[in-house]
Amino acid sequence: MKKILLTGLTLFLGMTAVNAQLIKNDFLDGYSIGDNLEKGEYTSTTNDQETNPVMIQWNLTGKSNSSGKNDNRAGNSPLITDILSYPGYIETDQLSFELLKLNSGEGRTTGYSLTSDNTYKDATYYVSFLVNFSNAGASTPTDFLALEGNYYLNTQRAKICIIKSGGGFKFALLESNGTAAESTDVYQLNTTYLLVLKYEFNGKVQLFVEPAINTTEPTSTPLEYTISSGVNSIRGITVRQRSNFAAKIGGLRFAQTWNDVLGLVETPAISEATAITTDGFTANWTPVVNATNYKVTVYQGSTPVGTHETTEGQDASSLTITGLEELTQYTYTVTALNETNNYFNSDESVESDPFTTNATNSIDSSAADKGIIISTRYYNLNGIEVNEPSVSNVYIKQDIYEDGSITTSKTFK
User: What is the 3-state secondary structure (H, E, C) of 91-126?
Assistant: First the structure.
């Protein structure tokens, strides 16, 4: 799959008509390397838009430190750092931010406040991101990213954790407190991994580590639990700095479907060619979500002989193709295009069933009397002359008349 960069078009923030289920992926827009991730801080955990208004940005939690501890507001803001790359992920080669290793016993909670209302509830939501740990020092689950139930960042659920294991680490998933579900595999430091968190209200929470980047969503993972004490609504995403790990996080996406969180577009299902003429046909397919247009590739055998694009947008379901050779066999494929930088194009569809363009008379035979047919020749669809057809198939028939005129037609054996 190839990423198509947007040129000459406006990128819309949030939801658009094309990307209807991609909620947000511009979490680091406007930042430069070395910037603080936090742009503000909450002064309390009071749900009051006058004294503690929501700020749609990265903020320091409004939760104070626990008694005798420095566990929520220690140290400094995470810092914007260089890119994280991961093959095949739509948000690769973007800036990331660094979770710094703090002093023993310290912690700092930073979060992106999405909303103060109940926009994101009673449905299924996904978060995908890249992470690269340079240090992992705790043998018990330590959370580093979670979903947030309040905009002022004091109620974390679906906590994604890290556990030291030998010279590497395991990922773990924890609702809030209690026993965490651990990965069976051990992962390596200084390696970038793709994670996808799925949160199904009134259902299960699942964490997929290095899933295949395709439109088939996995159904099971060792990292899952059934919600017993979830959030009423997702109002933010939080990250934690701790004393026992250091990491980079980037490529963050928040969406409502598997395809949207990974930037994937379904491959169109095609049907047979219709309206076949001497020099063309109509290609047909079923429209797919997140397409902005479609590309039809015409093949003669295994050789592509032309590409044609629609201009009607996502709902286009057919395209008339002209300029082909008569009496020639063709097939076609369809690719769904997405002309933003938020999604890949789809994979190319399977090829259509073969079809043959129609024939025209090589000589105008409108005269009333052409005389009798003096000979007839037959050709297969590759243009090779054959004896009188003996195998069930479609053939090209040429009748030659006394006056030299020739008529060409298809015949079926």
Answer: CCCEEEEEECCCCCCCCEEEEEECCCCCCCCCCEEE
pLDDT at 357 over 70: yes
pTM: 0.81
For CA atoms 176, 179, 182, 188, the dihedral sign is positive
Mean pLDDT, range 106-129, rounded to an integer: 97
pLDDT reported for residue 278: 92
- Which amino acid appears at position 90 of this protein? I
The bridge status of strand 204-209 relative to strand 224-226 is antiparallel
Question: What dotted CATH number matches 270-356?
Answer: 2.60.40.10
Instruction: Judge whether 139 and 164 are in contact, CB under 8 Å.
Output: yes
CB-based contact 251:130 (threshold 8 Å): yes
- Whether the Cβ atoms of residue 257 and residue 337 lie closer than 8 Å to each other: no
Distance CA 68, CA 52 (A): 25
What gap in Å lies between CA 129 and CA 159, rounded to an integer? Answer: 14
**Strands across the sheet containing 236-241:** 40-41, 58-60, 108-113, 236-241, 142-148, 156-165, 168-174, 181-182
Instruction: Output b/e per residue, 37-57; b: 16+ Cβ within 10 A.
Output: bbbeebeeeeeeeeebebbee
Q: Residues 264-280: pLDDT tens digits?
A: 999 999 999 999 999 99
Q: What is the pLDDT of residue 363?
A: 42
- Which of the four CATH numbers 3.40.640.10, 1.10.1790.10, 2.60.120.260, 2.60.120.200 does domain 31-262 have? 2.60.120.200
Q: What is the pLDDT of residue 361?
A: 56
> Once rounded to an integer, what is the mean pLDDT over residues 148-162?
97
CA 93 to chain centre: 16
What torsion, rounded to 10 degrees, do the Cα atoms 248, 253, 256, 261 define?
A: -90
Q: In the beta sheet, which residues pair with residue 319?
A: 283
Pairing of strands 142-148, 270-274: unpaired
